[in-house]
Amino acid sequence: MSFGKDIIIAAQTELAKRKSRAENLQQQRRSEVLLKVPEIAAAERELAQTGLDVVKAIGMGADARSYLENLAKTNLALQEKIKLLLVSNGYPENYLETDYVCKKCEDTGYVEGTPCSCRRILLKELALKKLYSNSRAAQCTFESFNLDYYSDRPDERFGISAKEQMKNILEYCRCYADDFDCSSPSLYLFGQTGLGKTHLTLAIAGVVTASGYNVIYDSAQNIFNRLEREHFRSSRSDEYDGAEQELLDCDLLIIDDLGSEFTTQFTVAALYNVLNTRLNCDKPVIISTNLDAHALEEKYSPRITSRIMGGYTPLHFLGNDIRQKLNN
Predict the structure, then answer these.
(1) Of 10, 62, 197, 239, which is most buried by a Cβ count within 10 Å?
(2) What string of H, E and C letters represents the secondary structure of 154-222?
(3) What is the pTM of this model?
(4) 323 and 174, same structural domain?
(5) What pLDDT is stored for residue 234 in this prediction?
(6) What pLDDT does 240 receive?
(7) Structural domains counted in the chain
(8) Based on the domain organization, do 110 and 139 belong to the same domain?
(9) Is residue 137 predicted with pLDDT exceeding 50?
(10) With contact defined as beta carbons under 8 Å apart, do 71 and 56 qualify?
(11) Cα–Cα distance between 161 and 319 in angstroms, integer?
(12) How many angstroms separate the CA atoms of 307 and 326, rounded?
């Protein structure tokens, strides 16, 4: 599983803030306590000396074991003395301990060089926060997808009602999100406008992101705008933000409303590169669009259409524009 550099930087920043807050608070508490209870300072000095005295055990031979055992007893006795002094002066016995959010890694994000579970949780939380801040993802869930807006009358063209078709698609998307891994198939969601394609892609994005995968979700227009800015300013290092590499590396790329963007030679070439590279690397993509195969070929190219039609699972959305029903 991977995350975008913005999420990783945000996680590192948050961990550093947590560590700094905990250690600053500990210093404040220590200054307060030592001023009020100077006996604790004396006990701490003795405690520090027991640590230094351990060095004396080197070269003591058979006497070392007994010496170290006595030091250990002295150490424990001093720790208990400090706790008793704290409690007798109205403080909790752990008042001088550094109150890290995560005791295992002490808010560094790593335990002996291995990523801590708190870091993984934080990365997921930040990724979800980013997803929800940029879209309606918090409201677009599988549970809120309402099949009552679709007709249960069989469509003569397809031999199935819109409600039944959408029920099947809803269940497929739910299972896809629940079972997602980096080898999951790519999806091609197509159909007329206002049928719930964006709702279901956002629902998938929310579940997959919450599972710890790096999901990039955006409209085709925003994606191509970012790629174009990067392409024509890449010679200026301060403008380069790694947009293309993030699109190629993320666990799941979701391109919403493909076909609504202003199409140029650049956007066609950029789309082909992203789709072809991810297809060759077996990295899944989800495309939602109003365009069927014929319209895709007219707007883009046979090469792009071939990759989508040959490498993606098609989900054909049926029905009438739900937004119009909601507005009436």
Answers:
(1) 197
(2) EECCCCEEHHHHHHHHHHHHHHHHHCCCCCCCEEEEECCCCCCHHHHHHHHHHHHHHCCCCEEEEEHHH
(3) 0.77
(4) yes
(5) 53
(6) 47
(7) 2
(8) no
(9) yes
(10) no
(11) 8
(12) 36
